[in-house]
Amino acid sequence: MLRAGLIVASLAALQAGVSTPALAQSYGNRGGSTLLVTPDGDLLDYTPEQGEVVISRDQMGRRVLIDRYGNVVAIEVPAETYFPRQREARAPAYDDYGAPAPGWEDDGIVTGAIPSPDAIDRQPLDEPLPDMPTGGPDLAPPTDQAPMRTVTPDIPVKSNLSQLEITALQVFLDREGVSPGVIDGKMGQNVNKALVAWQQMTGETIDPNNAEDILERLRLSGGLAITSYTITPGDAAGPYVAEIPEDYSQKALLPSLAYTSTTEMLAEKFHMDEAYLRQLNPGVDFTIPGTIIKVVEPGQTKTGSVARIIANKGLKQVFAYAEDGSLIAAYPASIGSADTPSPSGTVTVERVALNPGYTYNPKINFQQGANDKVLSIPPGPNGPVGTVWMALSRPTYGIHGTPEPSKIGRTQSHGCIRLTNWDATELAKMVKPGVTVEFID
């Protein structure tokens, strides 16, 4: 009934040519009076910018946000009327292709799921490494709370696939070297961009509604999208840290900025969204060695020799090309913002550092809290630049990882090119000093 109402509202808005500006206030806050809920029942975790959506009303008088292709983005509902759907927790069954087996209906994630109050709020940081010349726009505190406009490729990508079928599509694209970002079973902008990049790479197209074709391509690319994995004693042992503090003086006291849990580590290992990993394994204790869990199988790491990189600031995507001009890989990225833009023109990769640390100098960097001394921040996947730093010839700029992979391609950086840790690591192993990096709009 809700979905039908949304479709009616969508058609009505398009026929009427509605051009109401996007909602200005912030949504998704449990303390607010209204929430934006997607057609799948999730909370919308960003605020669309003006011109990105039009607004109509459904038969109940609620405001409905619609994108330029006629897709319903979200519906505004009173916060007090929004409750999670409850369904029996049970593990999904899969057929030979990794798709849901007959008789098992995929309801998607629990409607209205809200992060646990004790979830770690790890603030992404984009500062360069200590041995880099410092200064410049990339040293200001991040502004992820101000969502940027996401540019959609000029093809309307829609899908009627189930969540697990979308997972199969994401896994196939990841195996092909066109990263969809975190694998979460959702059709979003990063998947759209990966589909376009795959077309550029191969000259072929994929119908995002043709599940049979997608599953056959998946089979030929390496088999099942979902596989079993046994948690090892090493997985359970870590080392892990209880939490990642925001204050740099507290960060400096930690032995490393390691993962905060087994689930966070495993999610990155298998290129997954942490919440989706938990969803596929309801009730599982990930800290017990020998536990068998369901994970996605992203396949082998892409290999090759990258001669040229293009950072497309408009698409929020990075393209890696071989010497002969062929596209080797493509990755969703967070690249600059209006206030702190990335450089323009062409620079080169100066050097590559894996598992980098960071030195905070208040005389050169931004003022962080009350810190007035030089601090050595230890390395780790939750460090300021994640697991990789590729220094560029323009001082303070680089290509690097992130402690929050689910935000890649959706939030702003402060001039640098931010990728997921696994994408940044994959790219770093194909890059050598002297590779050109061209920033285009």
UniProtKB/TrEMBL annotation:
Active site: 400 (proton donor/acceptor), 416 (nucleophile)
Pathway recorded for this protein: Cell wall biogenesis; peptidoglycan biosynthesis
Keyword Secreted in record: no
Keyword Signal: yes
InterPro entries attached to this UniProt entry: LD-transpeptidase, LD_TPept_cat_dom, PGBD-like_sf, Transpep_catalytic_dom
GO molecular function, a single term: peptidoglycan L,D-transpeptidase activity
CC terms in the record's Gene Ontology section: extracellular region
Family: Belongs to the YkuD family.
PANTHER family: BLR4375 PROTEIN, L,D-TRANSPEPTIDASE
Keywords, sorted A to Z: Cell shape, Cell wall biogenesis/degradation, Peptidoglycan synthesis, Signal, Transferase
Protein name: L,D-transpeptidase
Residue span, L,D-TPase catalytic domain: 307-440
Highest taxon of source: Bacteria
Pfam family, one: YkuD
Signal peptide: 1-24
Database matches in Gene3D superfamilies: L,D-transpeptidase catalytic domain-like (2.40.440.10)
PROSITE patterns in the cross-refs: LD_TPASE
Residue segments, region Disordered: 115-147
GO BP: cell wall organization; peptidoglycan-protein cross-linking; regulation of cell shape
